[in-house]
Amino acid sequence: MARALTLCGSIRKGSYNEILRRHVSGKLVEAGAEVEDIDLGDYALPIFNEDIEAEGMPAAAVALAEKFAAADIVFIASPEYNSGASPLIVNTISWISRQRLGQFRKPVFGLGAVSSGKYGAIVGIGHLRDSLLKLGALVTPTLLGIGPARDAFDETGAPREEAIAKKVDQQVRELIHFSRGGI
Ligand SMILES: Cc1cc2nc3c(=O)[nH]c(=O)nc-3n(C[C@H](O)[C@H](O)[C@H](O)COP(=O)(O)O)c2cc1C
């Protein structure tokens, strides 16, 4: 059974990306994966600074890197800020990248982004993908760029647009297909 992690690059109450994370998590469970949902609010990390690192690696950075290294699938839903990736996700990846556990090479990564704009944060998600590729990660060909956020999900948290629902299903299929967990 493939082991999947899901996390969100926004810890805002009412985050649209958190709605997407929850939806994809449910789809991964339906697909047969064993899923752990991570709340980055539970893994508070200082803004990355090599001086802090020299004083000792924060326990949250080690714990997250270990979870990535043990996962076959990592799904990240994360907003775009000023056409870049969210500061929370950049900071989290910076800290995780300082471990040497194969944490970016073992899992396959699926990325999603929900934004208030109609272009669905596709620029920010591209930056995040480039960064992960540079770290040696495999990222699914299908990216979920969803917008405008306000109209994107129904009251159950499912995508309103059929085309988006199909894209989610496609990405989940790719995650299972490319994962090394062997469902
Ligand atoms: C500082 C800041 C910068 C933003 N930049 C962008 C942007 O470049 N592109 C975009 O589509 N939305 C942008 N937004 C709007 C976010 O897409 C929107 O706030 C989104 O709901 C945040 O995700 P969340 O609901 O998961 O917290 C920005 C929002 C903030 C606060």
UniProtKB/TrEMBL annotation:
Domain of life: Bacteria
Residue ranges annotated for the NADPH-dependent FMN reductase-like domain, each copy included: 3-143
Transmembrane segments annotated in the record for this chain: none
A GO cellular-component term linked to this record: cytosol
One annotated GO molecular function: oxidoreductase activity
InterPro entries registered for this protein in UniProt: Flavoprotein-like_sf (IPR029039), FMN_Rdtase-like_dom (IPR005025), NAD(P)H-dep_reductase (IPR050712)
Name listed for the protein in its UniProt record: NADPH-dependent oxidoreductase
